Amino acid sequence: MKNKLSRQDYGVLCRRKFVKHFEKKWGSYEVLRKTLFEFSNGRKVLTPFASLSYNRWWFGISKQYWKNWDNQTYMALLMREGNKCDFVLLNPTESLELLNGIKPVTSFQKMINVYLPSGSGRIYIQEWQDFPFEQNIVHLGNIEDSDVVEKFEPSIEKNINDPNKKKWICTSLQLIVNNMLN
């Protein structure tokens, strides 16, 4: 891809690969929210995304999700390392068990930490170390494959080329400058 992708762009592309993977098994899907999908078989999947950083992936789960978890919602932890994307799918019961075992770091968010130890250590969820994480990793492959990237514009270009965003950016910059001068 000729344009540099942001973390947000990689998350969008990884989610595209994920839903494409499950569309074959669970049917068509609808985007309920940016990270929440519902398939035609009634299953919902929350898809938090993280890029590997300092030997770990960390996922923030908003209170709007963990407070109202239902028995039809799965959680797919989408993990990026370089241009590769993998996921681990937790069924609704496993998702609830994990979320119930985590204390909120703020009043509106819980954090899930997945560690990739250096050397030959096993990959694990810090908050649920007994969960067989490595055995459940599914490889989606290269995020930048043409089947996922077609018609994709990096978010920065979209925001700058959108007239409404240009107006918002200019207004925001003007407010910042005015505050600095006053």
The CATH topology of the largest domain turns out to be: Trna Endonuclease, Chain: A, domain 1
Mean pLDDT: 82
Low-confidence stretches: 155-182
Task: Give the radius of gyration.
Answer: 19 Å
Structural class: alpha+beta
The span between the termini is 44 Å
Give the name of the CATH architecture of the largest domain.
3-Layer(aba) Sandwich
Number of strands: 10
The level 1 CATH classification of the largest domain is Alpha Beta
How much of the polypeptide forms β-strand, as a percent range?
Answer: 25-35%
What's the domain count?
A: 2
Number of helices: 6
* Overall form: globular
* Element-by-element helix/strand order: HEEEEEHEEHEEEHHH
Biggest sheet, in brief? Answer: 7 strands, mixed
Portion of residues in helices? 25-40%
Task: Please summarize what this structure is.
The protein is built from six helices and ten strands, in the order αβββββαββαβββααα. It is α+β, with helices and mostly antiparallel strands and 182 residues long.
Description:
By secondary structure, this protein is α+β, with helices and mostly antiparallel strands. It folds into 2 domains: 145 residues, 3-Layer(aba) Sandwich (Trna Endonuclease, Chain: A, domain 1), CATH 3.40.1350; 31 residues. It is 35% helix and 29% strand. It is built from 6 helices and 10 strands, in the order αβββββαββαβββααα. The strands form 2 sheets. Strands 1, 2, 3, 4, 6, 7 and 10 form a 7-stranded mixed beta sheet that branches. Strand 8 and strand 9 form a beta hairpin. The relative contact order is 0.15.
